[in-house]
């Protein structure tokens, strides 16, 4: 068995019904994606619009594409026709743009609000007040073509497992609170290769796994 197929099978078995597996295929060649596809994987995560544009037309039609990285507003129009989920909605202006592009082509685009949970200042995301403002003060019906299905967060890049756990726990608490206040949310995207076991313990419903499936990325 090919190492990619083998690693993927391990995750598929481990996750079962617990969480959706997003196979993060950024920087990887189409042959690698095809191996995963042949193993039954349908959901792929990419973080560059150009790369999505290159891969999407070539892979089978039932492949589901998730945009997991920071998305520039002027590029939303390119992926609007086919993207299955945008994980990184990190500003009101981006949310407005997604709604606008969805309206233009009459397609409702599923989205997650990215919440800033890490201590680092470099990670993108909304703060809790902004999330509450979007969902509770305005209400999701303000963006009928950008359907907010849940939240996404990235923990700090640290060896401190307790810190990672606290960050994920905080996001899960916000998720539960919003649901208790009447929001219809079902996806909590948290966990990557290095921290997904903690994320699952803290209530993740969707993990984004790249290097543990496809091997280390080479950016040169
Ligand atoms: C690259 C990336 C991942 C996957 O990271 P791995 O450590 O390779 O599993 C997950 N989420 C986001 C937002 C990413 O950019």
The CATH class is identified as Alpha Beta
Name the structural class.
Answer: alpha/beta
Main sheet: strand order? 7-6-5-4-3-2-1-8
CATH fold descriptor: TIM Barrel
Q: Write down the Rg.
A: 17 Å
State the order of secondary-structure elements, H for helix, E for strand.
HEHEHEHEHEHEHEHEH
Query: Could you say which overall geometry the principal axes of the C-alpha atoms support?
Result: globular
Please summarize the sheet with the most strands.
8 strands, parallel
Number of helices: 9
CATH architectural name: Alpha-Beta Barrel
Please state the average pLDDT score.
95
Folded structure, characterized:
By secondary structure, this protein is of the alpha/beta class. It has a single domain, classed as Alanine racemase (TIM Barrel, Alpha-Beta Barrel). Strand 1, helix 2 (30-38) and strand 2 form a beta-alpha-beta unit. Helix content is 40%, strand content 18%. An 8-stranded parallel beta sheet has the order 7-6-5-4-3-2-1-8. The chain has 9 helices and 8 strands. Pyridoxal-5'-phosphate binds at residues 24, 26, 47, 68-69, 154, 192-194, 208-212.
């Amino acid at each position: 068995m090919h190492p990619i197929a083998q690693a993927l099978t391990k995750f598929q078995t481990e996750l079962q019904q617990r969480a959706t597996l997003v196979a993060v295929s950024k920087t990887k060649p189409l042959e690698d994606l095809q191996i995963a596809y042949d193993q039954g994987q349908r959901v792929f995560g990419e973080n560059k619009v150009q790369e999505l544009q290159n891969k999407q037309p070539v892979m089978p039609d039932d492949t589901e594409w998730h945009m997991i990285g920071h998305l520039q507003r002027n590029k939303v129009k390119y992926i609007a026709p086919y993207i299955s989920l945008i994980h990184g909605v990190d500003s009101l202006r981006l949310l407005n743009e997604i709604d606008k592009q969805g309206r233009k082509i009459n397609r409702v685009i599923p989205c997650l609000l990215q919440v800033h949970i890490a201590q680092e200042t470099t990670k993108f995301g909304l703060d809790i007040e902004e999330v509450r403002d979007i969902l509770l003060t305005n209400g999701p019906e303000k963006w009928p073509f950008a359907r907010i299905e849940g939240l996404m967060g990235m923990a700090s890049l640290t060896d401190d497992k307790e810190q990672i756990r606290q960050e994920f726990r905080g996001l899960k608490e916000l998720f539960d609170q919003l649901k208790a206040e009447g929001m219809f949310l079902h996806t909590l995207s948290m966990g990557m290769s290095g921290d997904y076991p903690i994320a699952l313990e803290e209530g993740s419903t969707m993990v984004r796994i790249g290097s543990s499936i496809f091997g280390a990325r080479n950016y040169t």
